[in-house]
Write a structure and sequence with these properties.
The complex is a heterotrimer of chains A (about 525), B (about 375) and C (about 375).
Chain A (H helix, E strand, L loop, with lengths): L37 H12 L5 E8 L4 E8 L5 H23 L5 H12 L5 E4 L2 H10 L1 E6 L5 E5 L28 H11 L5 E8 L5 E8 L5 H12 L9 H8 L11 E3 L2 H9 L3 E5 L5 E4 L10 H5 L2 H30 L7 H11 L6 H21 L2 H22 L4 H14 L5 H9 L1 H29 L1 E2 L2 E2 L43
Antiparallel strand pairs in A: 1-2, 2-4, 3-5, 4-5, 6-7, 7-9, 8-10, 9-10, 11-12
Chain B lengths: L9 H12 L7 H9 L3 H24 L6 H9 L1 H33 L6 H17 L2 H26 L17 H9 L23 H34 L3 H7 L9 H31 L6 H15 L5 H20 L1 H10 L4 H7 L1
Helix pairs in contact in B: 1-7, 1-9, 1-11, 2-3, 2-8, 2-9, 3-8, 3-9, 3-14, 4-5, 5-6, 5-11, 5-12, 5-13, 6-11, 6-12, 7-9, 7-11, 10-11, 11-12
Chain C lengths: L1 H16 L12 E11 L7 E8 L14 E8 L2 H7 L7 E3 L5 E5 H6 L1 H10 L8 E5 L4 H4 L9 H11 L11 E2 H10 L3 E9 L2 E3 L3 E5 L2 E6 L1 H11 L5 E6 L7 E18 L2 E18 L7 H31 L6 H8 L1 H7 L3 H6 L2 E12 L6
Parallel strand pairs in C: 1-4, 1-5, 5-6, 6-8, 14-15
Antiparallel strand pairs in C: 1-2, 2-3, 6-7, 8-9, 8-10, 10-11, 12-13, 13-14
Helix pairs in contact in C: 4-7, 8-9, 10-11
Classes of the chains: A alpha+beta (about 525), B mainly alpha (about 375), C alpha/beta (about 375).
């Protein structure tokens, strides 16, 4: 099913907010302008929506003059209470009462303004003159009101659908942080942002992307801190997106990122509002996509992947220690199997003698060469991890124990692998989960396999060359024009305070240069 | 980006210069110094370092007269188009020769010390591929990798020196200068090969962000190798004595191998692994110089295709020497040629002043 | 288009890299030689007998204990490198010297052929520089056959003994490693190796073997080594005992925790004068039958004097023995002379032996007793 169509050379560059022409479901082309005749407008709507059973059409008459009106909405997207009490009842019964009271009738010419000014008690209304805009709004959850004799429609906001309440962000939990995470509704997410930052300079703008899905995409920044050229760059990239469906935030991320040849992410994806607010304050831009509880942070650097909001809730000495462990863990996660293979097969002189003899003894019964053994065990761990992600909660725990202990132990006893290998693989797996950002963790993990192959071919020399290669690669990635490895390269000493260690809160007076903010002093730290 | 750095930062400049100089030669420099100067090897190395700092200063002064041009361009201005191009060709050939020499010396050392049965070609090709990737990214990629690698390399060398400090037998140094200072000066000329790499200063001024501070940071970059090498040779000759040091082909490795902490057994393997970083940065520097010079001599702008052209050339040149003694001979030649290339900045500067080329006053005139 | 071709060629090149792993050798396919014993062959005059002690990996797994955690294999060949290659005839594993802990030299071998083996050991990259070397009275291979209670492998036991025991007893000399021997060979100085001797099925490591010009010339026993160690200045700790005079008590033992010595050559009237400055600090660990009537300060002073005299005697005796009987200089005297008096050295290079033989010794020994333990004297 071809929902997503990728257009390599978008000939029509989409200007932000430009309307798109919807394709009618029926064969005949429909004139998209509205007429003053209710029946004609009604027919036009029906041409699109009559095959969908969740579209509701309600005709009724207004007042003693029996002015025809019609309501159109999508069931499930509107809050029925509002439709009953704030739209239908005032229009149907209250008008009659009012007419009786003033002993007058509402004339068709004044019906429109009268309805808007006095009858409908809905907080947010819009007026529209084209069918496609009305259609879009109805499909977004609004209610369209057609009045006979007018070629304008009133769009009433009565949105209400069932949504997941604010809950603990599942992919990033912290011990001492807030438990609210983003949800799938864009408006709730922007509301969360507003709650955390009441600065009037914080700007939230919404556009629509996706030719068929018409997904709402919002981006937020703080005027006065964020570099205007960054905003321009983002807007330009968003306008180049020409695709049917924006499936999720991750999908959007891949459509606007700089470099698709690298396993590492160039935008941070997070579910936590506190992390996004901190990033906003540092001059970054946040992108929120409707139907996705993840926010994208632009731009990002490699050092950011090791920061967790936890660090800022604890004291700086403790946080520095933990952050240092994270860096060491990421190094282990990538290099340990390769270094083990290289050392054991190429340079056993590097290991202390007793350990070398233990390893030799452990390996005597194993039929595979070290490299095959290592690759097999790593693949097994990846299989376990992948299957663990899909299992329901109850069985997931069991598989963890079964996989870890029983299979590992049984494999050793059967002579398929040596105990050292099991330990190394287990440590590597644990170490890779220490990295707070999931996408960075799996990106780094994929580097393990080629590294193991290189280690088996060229020993520690190969590992070192691969290390150099990875460094060159990391250094040449740019995230929205920002060097990926700031503050290591280029070295910016001011930013080092938040890099491997976490500096004391009182010393963090200046914003990091990482996003080139135009306002360098954090005003809240005097 | 509005405020983004438009060029190399100061720290990057010094890191680049330091890492270009600290290279393959670090493992054999104690032997060369001990052969030529005996117990005064450290002093000879130090004097050679001072010489290199002075020459680096001259190169920087010369470059500063032409803030937007690299040596290929301003040599044509100073010497006239023909001689300038000849000078450029000499630089290209020099860079290729040094690159091949370092690559071959490195591969040979690796074969003896680490991977005895792996063919030389494989070692060299792998290194060449990685250098290709780095130089292809441009000068900014090169300096950024230099920045990252500076610290680990320094750490390992400092550790090696530090752990051997207690074994230095100071009484050997009582007979320093027993033969007078003249042999030391002569020996200093023989060890300038240690510091070769600062020729990169000829090429980078147009790309630097803060051109005023070029002198300070360029010099700073040259000072660090002086300290490292002098320290290393000092400890080496102090621990093992000049006679033994001149017998070892790769003395620094033995220094690392001697470190006897409880469970660290073969520290020399770690030393070799980090030494690969030093070799890598030096090689990228020279490849960049070679391809950049070649493009500019031919009058073109984009140097990236030329990297691919030069790489097979360098490889072929690396496999030409037949055995280790030929390599040592080439090394001696490279030593003197490199010294003269750096020395050539002095006559260039003099001619530039005489012919009133470059500099602020003349730029305004133009 | 060009970019695609480039990538293709590069990936082809990469495939060449992965064609084979040349140095890949599984760790269990290597036989780790952990000790070597070199002896002169009984029958052939030119040949030597090399005994390799190879560790059996099974020792260290908790699952199953092998009876013999090591095994010895002897090869006869003209020198060590040939013997090493000959091992390939006998085992399915590749012998590897990476974890060699000790090299033991038999008496006969040390007297005649010792200097020939050094080259192989230094030229190969795969051996640690800190391999301990010891000399054995009679046959070296007997040491490798000894049975020990803890840590069943002799090579490990001896290596650890050489590492540690000299800090505990003054009669055990500090070890020499390959690096040291290399320096000795290139600079042509003499040294002392720890002596191993089998005494009723038990190992005795006191004393040392004296080497001159890379050949064994004699033995020193435990007592004599004490003086040498003080002369060399490599005493870190140890126990020193002395007989007390009648009115003081019977005997005493001191735990030396610091011994700082500096030995310097000096030329006086054309003669070599060796000046030794020694300061020993220690605590008393045993005073047998001390005379409690003498007061403490005086007691300690007299004890110190006794110690000083004792140490002086020991040093002088050892020095004379080294000087006259063996004419060997294990204290780097020659090197120091080269550094301190280069002109004198240039003149007298040839007759160093004579210069050394007629050298005088000047001692300045100071013993300081700091503490006396938990009970009063």
């Amino acid at each position: 099913m071809k929902i997503i169509k990728r257009n390599k050379n978008p000939k029509n560059k989409e200007v932000i907010g430009e309307r798109q022409k919807p394709q009618p479901q029926s064969e005949d082309r429909v004139n998209l302008d509205l007429s003053k005749n209710l029946d004609e407008n009604y027919e036009k709507f029906q041409a699109f929506l009559k095959e969908s059973t969740d579209a509701v059409f309600r005709r009724f008459k207004l007042g003693q003059n029996k002015i025809s009106c019609a309501l159109i909405y999508i069931d499930g997207l509107v809050e029925k209470e509002v439709v009953h009490n704030s739209i239908l009842r005032p229009m149907m019964s209250n008008v009659l009462e009012y007419e009786a009271m003033i002993e007058d009738v509402i004339k068709p010419e004044e019906a429109y303004n009268f309805i808007i000014d006095h009858v409908i008690s809905v907080a947010e209304i819009k007026e529209t003159e084209t069918l496609d805009e009305a259609m879009l709004l109805v499909l977004s959850g609004e209610v369209a009101l057609i009045i006979d004799g007018y070629d304008k429609l009133i769009i009433l906001s009565a949105r209400g659908w069932s949504t997941r309440g604010l809950s603990d962000p599942q992919s990033e939990s912290v011990i001492r942080g807030a438990r609210e995470g983003f949800t799938e509704t864009l408006r709730t997410n922007t509301a969360l942002l507003r709650r955390k930052c009441k600065d009037p300079n914080m700007v939230i703008r919404t556009i629509r992307l996706g030719r068929r899905s018409k997904t709402d995409v919002a981006y937020a920044y703080i005027k006065g801190i964020t570099n205007p050229r960054l905003i321009e760059e983002l807007e330009e990239r968003l306008s180049k997106v020409d695709i049917d469906l924006i499936a999720s935030a991750g999908h959007l991320e891949q459509l606007i990122q700089d470099n698709s040849l690298t396993p590492l992410p160039q935008m941070q994806v997070t579910e936590r509002p506190d992390k996004t607010i901190a990033n906003l304050m540092e001059g970054r831009i946040i992108v929120l996509v409707d139907n996705s509880p993840f926010a994208l942070t632009i731009p990002t650097t490699f050092a950011q992947f090791f920061q967790s909001p936890e660090d800022y809730n604890e004291r700086w000495i403790v946080s520095s220690f933990i952050r240092f462990i994270r860096w060491a863990a990421s190094f282990f996660a990538v290099f340990t199997p390769a270094v083990y293979i290289a050392v054991v097969t190429y340079h056993p002189g590097l290991i202390p003698t007793r350990l070398a003899l233990s390893i030799a003894a452990a390996r005597i019964g194993v039929p595979f060469p070290s490299i095959i053994e290592a690759v097999l065990m790593e693949l097994t761990i990846e299989l376990l991890r992948e299957s663990g992600a899909r299992l329901p909660k109850g069985i997931g725990q069991t598989i963890g124990i079964v996989g870890g202990l029983v299979i590992g132990d049984a494999a050793v006893n059967a002579g398929l692998t040596s105990p050292i290998m099991v330990i190394i693989v287990a440590l590597t797996a644990i170490a890779s989960f220490v990295i707070p950002t999931y996408s960075a963790a799996i990106g780094l993990r994929t580097m393990r396999f080629p590294l193991m192959l290189i280690a088996a071919t060229l020993g520690l020399y190969g590992v070192m060359l691969a290390f150099i290669f990875i460094n060159i690669h990391l250094v040449s990635i740019k995230s929205f024009g920002m060097n990926y490895m700031t503050p290591q390269a280029p070295t910016i000493f001011n930013d080092m305070k938040d890099f491997v260690i976490r500096g004391p809160a009182r010393k963090m007076k200046k914003r990091p240069v990482q996003s080139y903010p135009i306002d360098m002093i954090r005003m809240d730290m005097e | 980006m509005q405020n983004q750095q438009k060029g190399l930062s100061n720290f990057q400049v010094s890191a680049l210069v330091t890492l270009s100089a600290v290279g393959m030669i670090i493992i054999s420099i104690p032997r060369i110094a001990a052969e030529q100067a005996g117990i005064d090897g450290a002093l000879a190395v130090f004097l050679a370092g001072i010489l290199s700092i002075i020459l680096a200063g001259v190169i920087i002064t010369l470059s500063k007269r032409f803030p937007t041009k690299t040596v290929i361009e301003y040599s044509q201005e100073i010497l006239g188009k023909l001689f300038g191009k000849v000078y450029g060709i000499i630089l290209v050939l020099y860079s290729i020769t040094v690159l091949s020499y370092i690559l071959r010396g490195f591969a040979d050392a690796l074969k003896v010390l680490l991977l005895p049965r792996t063919p030389l070609e494989i070692t060299m090709i792998c290194m060449l591929l990685v250098i290709l990737y780095c130089v292809h990214g441009g000068i900014s990629t090169i300096v950024r990798t230099c920045e990252i690698f500076l610290l680990p390399l320094l750490l390992v060398i400092v550790l090696t020196i530090f752990f051997n400090l207690s074994e230095v037998q100071l009484f050997r140094y009582r007979s320093s200068l027993s033969n007078g200072i003249t042999p030391v000066f002569k020996a200093a000329f023989g060890v300038t090969t240690a510091y070769l790499g600062y020729e990169i200063l000829f090429f980078i001024l147009p790309f630097i962000q803060d051109k005023e501070k070029f002198m300070i940071f360029g010099i700073r970059g040259t000072v660090l190798p002086v300290l490292i090498y002098s320290g290393l040779v000092f400890v080496m000759i102090g621990v093992l004595g000049p006679t033994t040091t001149s017998e070892l082909v790769y003395p620094a490795i033995h220094l690392a191998r001697q470190i006897g902490i409880e469970f660290i057994e073969r520290f020399d393997i770690l030393f070799i692994i980090f030494w690969i970083l030093a070799v890598f940065t030096t090689l990228t520097s020279y490849l960049y110089m070679a391809s950049f010079s070649l493009t500019r001599v031919l009058g073109m702008r984009n140097y990236k295709p030329f990297i691919l052209i030069l790489l097979p050339l360098c490889y072929v040149a690396s496999i030409l020497p037949q055995n280790i003694s030929e390599i040592n001979m080439i090394g001696k030649i490279v030593n003197y040629v490199g010294f003269f290339v750096a020395l050539s900045s002095i006559p260039l500067l003099i001619i530039a002043v005489i012919r009133k080329k470059g500099g602020k006053a003349n730029a305004e005139k133009e | 288009m060009l970019k695609k071709n480039r990538l293709f060629c590069l990936s082809l090149l990469l495939m060449f890299v992965f064609t084979s792993c040349w140095d890949y050798k599984e760790i269990e396919d290597k036989a780790f030689i952990i000790g070597i014993a070199l002896d002169k062959d009984a029958e052939e005059d030119e040949e030597i007998e090399v005994t390799f002690q190879i560790a059996e990996p099974n020792t260290f797994t908790p699952i199953g204990e092998s009876e013999e955690p090591f095994w010895n294999i002897s090869e006869t060949a003209i020198d060590l490198s040939k013997a090493h290659i000959q091992l390939a005839k006998r085992m399915n594993q590749i012998p590897s010297l990476e974890h060699c802990q000790i090299i033991l030299i038999g008496e006969e071998f040390a007297k005649t052929q010792q200097d020939e083996t050094l080259d192989f050991l230094l030229r190969t990259y795969n051996i640690r520089r800190r391999v301990h070397i010891g000399v054995v009275k009679d046959k070296a291979k007997d040491i490798l056959e000894l049975k020990f209670k803890t840590l069943l492998i002799p090579a490990f036991v001896i290596s650890e003994m050489m590492n540690e025991n000299h800090n505990y007893s003054l009669e055990v000399t500090n070890y020499m490693d390959i690096g040291g021997i290399h320096m000795a060979e290139t600079n042509n100085f003499d040294f002392i190796l720890p002596k191993l001797i089998i005494d009723e099925d038990k190992l005795d490591m006191s004393g040392g073997g004296v080497f001159k010009d890379m050949h064994l010339v004699g033995w020193l026993d435990g007592e004599e080594i004490v003086g040498i160690r003080f002369l060399r200045g490599d005493v870190n700790s140890g126990f020193l005992s002395v007989e007390l005079s009648e009115d003081l008590g019977k005997r005493a033992m001191m735990n030396v925790f610091e011994a700082v010595s500096s030995m310097e050559p000096e030329i006086k009237d054309g003669r070599l004068l060796v000046k030794l400055d020694l300061r020993i600090e220690g605590d008393m660990t045993e005073i047998v039958l001390a005379n409690k009537e003498i007061n403490e300060t005086e007691f300690l002073n007299r004890l110190e004097k006794l110690y000083e005299q004792d140490v002086k005697n020991k040093i002088e005796k050892s020095f004379r023995k080294m000087q006259q009987e063996f004419n060997s200089d294990p204290y780097q005297l020659k090197e120091k002379l080269m550094s301190y008096y280069p002109e004198f050295w240039k003149e007298n290079q040839e007759n160093w032996d004579e210069v050394y033989r007629s050298a005088a010794l000047e001692l300045d020994v100071k013993v300081l007793i700091r503490r006396i333990g938990e009970i009063k004297h």
